[in-house]
Amino acid sequence: MGTSSHKKILIVEDEQDILQLVKHYLEKEGFRTVPAMNGIEALKKVKEDKPDLVVLDLMLPEMDGLDVCKRLRSVPETAMLPILMLTAKAEESDTIVGLELGADDYVTKPFSPKALVARVKALLRRVERMPGGKPDLHLYGTLTMNLARHEVTIGTQEVPLTAKEFGLLEHLLRHRGRVLTREVLLNAVWGYDYYGTTRTVDVHIRRLKQKLPLLEEAVVSVKSLGYKLKDSDVSG
Ligand code: CA
Question: Residue 117 C-alpha to ligand 1 middle, in angstroms?
Fold first, then answer.
């Protein structure tokens, strides 16, 4: 229904009955769902499926909900990912720990599916209203681009870039996996009224690669078209 229609929810729950129940009610409301049966699978699916919100059971095999929560919060890419925890009454003290570790809200079992859906919607609305709800970061392998600080680092080492190099890299990171023509890059970074030629783009790509060797192989030239930053499988 309405705004929820395109949102993707990761449901992490080892009890099949509850998993199916939550899935059913969320899908009935127009959400897309991705299931995970344990903590390890949950982390993998967060990376692969990029959900908008996680419904996370506290008691899980392999790695429990608290550890999953801690892991998600420790990585900039998922630091702001909304997490709704499912807990049992007996786990109340763990619930408090969960909230301290960064869960945004929790629902106690047994719960009514309708109440759960309402909490999911409320949480998504809350995140959407938050200014800067998304961290101003782009991550690519060991590279981090911090937009707020206008800073690019490899590991902990800052790499000074000119404004144009920074803009070009940002555009590549934002549209990773897609071929960007020289014209598109020129317009995006230098502006439509810029007089230079598309060769300017080539020169700056070369400089970026000199400063950031990890781009040497990651930015590929697509014959007669332009450039593409390979979609990286950011590990770790
Ligand atoms: Ca469980």
Answer: 19
Q: What is the pLDDT of residues 15-27, one digit of tens each?
A: 999 999 999 999 9
- The reply to whether the predicted model has a pTM over 0.70 is no
User: Of 43, 40, 41, whose CA–CA distance to 77 is shortest?
Assistant: 43
Q: Please give the distance, rounded to the nearest whole angstrom, from the Cα atom of residue 103 to the centre of ligand 1.
A: 16
Tell me, in angstroms, the distance from the centre of ligand 1 to residue 235's CA. Answer: 27
- Nearest Cα to Cα of residue 153 among 176, 174, 137: 137
pLDDT of the residue at 235:
37
Q: Is the pLDDT of residue 102 over 70?
A: no
How far away, in angstroms, is 59 Cα from ligand 1 center? Answer: 4
